[in-house]
Structures are given as structure tokens and as C-alpha cells.
Design goal:
The protein is an alpha/beta fold. Helices cover about 40% and strands about 10% of the residues. A hairpin with a 4-residue loop joins strand 1 (about 10) and strand 2.
Length: about 375
């Protein structure tokens, strides 16, 4: 017997699986421009995941001017809309590779799925099929294995996209970076705040920025505290080197964060079979990798730029909160479908980059209006 189709769905004749309706949330307007995945053409130049050191402090590309300022871009949200242009598209490609071409998650469907759970891939998959109906030939006992299979195909699809440099930069962000470098400002990327395979994401971004621009960009990891190199008087991103006290404190904080995540997930799982609506903050899933004030201070010191002259551009509120707390100029650049998010303490909030939104000129104006006697 065929599974009854939920209202507003289209049947997949081959598998009997209902296709996603235009919106799981009926109050979300349809946006035809975002119905299909959009990938930028692969850049021909492949760059190293770790950029080369900047040898002259504050010196920009093709200019003799200097600007004692630094722009720090969150890799997974501000530089690349990893949720919508990376993970979502990879899920769609994963379904296609399994023969389920009729399943396609538009941006508003994926956003609803993110809001319905803790943001982990397994929960996204289960949430979708529990709402829309499982494949008719799939036994209940086989559902966990099916979820795992879908996830494996999604991971393979994302790996291929990143390897081929098919996850696009956010529109016009390269122009902002190039103009900042031309003015003599420093530019850095913070990786590892959302994606597990951060090295591939960095390489994907660097290739699309181009060799000349990529060579001027520093790359920091949210899991590594940069330290100055006393022998050269300059700064190098070290792979380790924390003092025992700092390392022990961070290990304890990470353990506590992991415990909170595990408790939240167990509670959500135990409530799944009840009628109680449970929502877990998706950012909680990344609590163990949250950026600390000490990390941001170390990054600024590594670049030899005062905290008050650093601009943090991020899509996650926890990043802008930390940046504001240490005296940086925090700027919110929400991902698609998250424009209504609340960002406390930010100096500005832009929906994107380019004319009318975030430009180097506007960021420079924010820096000009920032007191120089802030936290250093």
C-alpha cells in the first residue's frame, strides 16, 4: 500500500517518496531564485590552505599607502555561506546520487530543518522524512542505516564540491577584500567555526580569491591559539604552544561544552516520541569550538594591530558577541534566511556585500568612528 502523501507534496513515482513541498513553513514566501543550487565556476588556481606570511606590515597590493587595520572574516558564514551553498547543495547531490532526484531542499526548507533540531546532519535527515514520509519500501528497523547512508553520500558530495572549488564565495566579498588590501589593511580568515573539513573549505576559498589576493591573507584556526615568534620579532601561527595553564583551562572549557551538547541532544532524543515541541539551539552543537576572547586577542597581537582597529565580520551571533567583548568592531553579515537574527553589540549589520551593503568604504568609516583608547 502506498504511503499517503502529505498535503502539498509531489510523489516520486519510482520510489514512492513525496517530494519536498515549496515550504515546510507555510508562512515562508517562495523565492524562485533560490529553488536550485547555485555553484560558482571552479577557480583555475589552487592555493595552499595556509597562506604565506605577510613580510611587510600593513603594506597593501599595488599601493604605497598603509592602513593600520585588519578585517577578520568568519570562513563558514561571512566569507562563504556554508550552510546554504555548501551543506544544503551537498545534501541535494547526495539524494540525487542515491536515485532520489525528486528530493530537493530549497533554501527555506533547509532553513526550517536547521531550526527544528540541533543542526546535525542525522537530525536534519530524520526531521525531513518524519515530516514528509519515509520511503515506502523501507522498514522501520532500517531507518537508522538509511539515514547513515544518506549522510555518507552527502559527505562524499561535499568533499567533491570542495575539491573542485565549487562552493562559491559570497557575492562581492572578494571586492571588499581586494579594496582593503589595496588600502594597506590586513585581512585574515578564521576557519573551523562550523565545518569539520576546514582545510578543504579554506583551499576552496583561497582558489576563488586568486593567487595574488590569497598570498596576502592570514589563516587562523578557531582551535589553535597563535603565538608570536620571539626569534624573528614577527608572528607565526603555531600548531601548539599553549602554556600548561592556558591549555588546561581550554581543555576543561571544551569538556564542559561537550557535556552540555551531549545533555541537550539526549533530552531532544528522549522527547522526540512525545508531543512536546523541542528546539535545540543549532549553535550549541558547535559550543566546543566557540571562539574565545583570548583567541581574538592573540590574533590581533599576531597581526600587530590594536583590537579597536580590527573588524570581525561574522554570521554567527556568538562570534560577534566575543568580538565586541574584547573591543573589536563587530559586524554581522547573516547567511541567507537568517537576516532577522539578533546580534547584540554589533556596530553594523549588512545583508551582504557590495553597493548598498557591506563595502570597504563603510567598514573604514566604522573604524574612523571607533575610539582608539579601547581595549588593546
Amino acid at each position: 500500500m502506498l504511503l499517503r502523501q502529505p498535503a502539498g507534496t509531489l510523489a516520486c513515482s519510482k520510489f514512492g517518496v513525496p517530494r519536498a513541498s515549496p515550504a515546510l513553513n507555510r508562512n515562508v514566501p517562495q523565492d524562485p531564485a533560490h529553488m536550485q543550487p547555485s555553484c560558482a565556476a571552479a577557480a583555475p588556481q589552487r592555493c595552499s590552505a595556509r597562506s604565506r606570511q605577510i613580510t611587510t606590515h600593513g603594506q597593501g597590493i599595488g599601493t604605497g599607502q598603509t592602513e593600520q587595520a585588519a578585517l577578520i572574516f568568519e570562513l563558514d558564514g561571512a566569507l562563504i555561506d556554508m550552510h546554504m551553498d555548501g551543506h544544503r547543495v551537498a545534501f541535494n547531490k547526495g539524494f540525487e546520487s542515491l536515485g532520489y532526484e525528486c528530493i530537493n531542499w530549497p533554501v527555506h526548507v533547509y532553513n526550517d530543518l536547521l531550526a527544528a533540531g540541533d543542526g546535525t546532519p542525522e537530525v536534519l535527515i530524520r526531521s525531513y522524512f518524519e515530516r514528509m514520509g519515509w520511503p515506502t519500501m523501507l522498514a522501520t528497523s532500517d531507518r537508522p542505516a538509511w539515514v547513515k547512508k544518506v549522510y555518507e553520500h552527502k559527505v562524499a558530495a561535499l568533499h567533491k564540491m570542495l575539491t573542485n572549488k565549487l562552493v562559491p564565495l559570497r557575492p562581492e566579498v572578494k571586492q571588499v577584500i581586494d579594496e582593503a588590501l589595496a588600502a594597506g589593511a590586513q585581512v585574515a580568515i578564521m576557519s573551523g567555526t562550523l565545518s569539520e573539513n576546514s582545510e578543504l573549505v579554506v583551499a576552496n576559498a583561497m582558489a576563488q580569491l586568486g593567487e595574488e589576493t590569497a598570498a596576502e591573507i592570514r589563516v587562523f584556526s578557531s582551535g589553535v591559539v597563535p603565538q608570536a615568534n620571539a626569534s624573528t620579532g614577527g608572528s607565526v601561527e603555531e600548531e601548539g604552544g599553549d602554556t600548561m595553564g592556558a591549555g588546561s583551562m581550554r581543555s576543561l572549557a571544551e569538556a564542559q561544552a561537550r557535556a552540555k551538547v551531549a545533555t541537550a541532544r539526549q533530552f531532544a532524543a528522549s522527547s522526540a516520541s512525545t508531543d512536546i515541541p523541542v528546539r535545540v539551539d543549532p549553535q550549541l552543537a558547535n559550543a566546543a569550538r566557540r571562539v574565545t576572547p583570548e583567541l581574538l586577542a592573540a590574533m590581533a597581537a599576531t597581526m600587530d594591530v590594536p583590537l579597536s582597529r580590527c573588524v570581525m565580520l561574522a554570521s554567527q551571533a556568538n562570534l560577534t558577541d566575543v568580538a565586541s567583548s574584547v573591543g573589536m568592531v563587530s559586524v554581522a553579515v547573516p547567511r541567507r534566511m537568517a537576516e532577522r537574527g539578533v546580534y547584540n553589540g554589533v556596530r553594523a549589520k549588512f545583508m551582504g556585500y557590495g553597493t548598498g551593503e557591506c563595502t570597504w568604504g563603510r567598514l573604514r568609516a566604522l573604524l574612523a568612528n571607533t575610539p582608539q583608547n579601547g581595549k588593546q
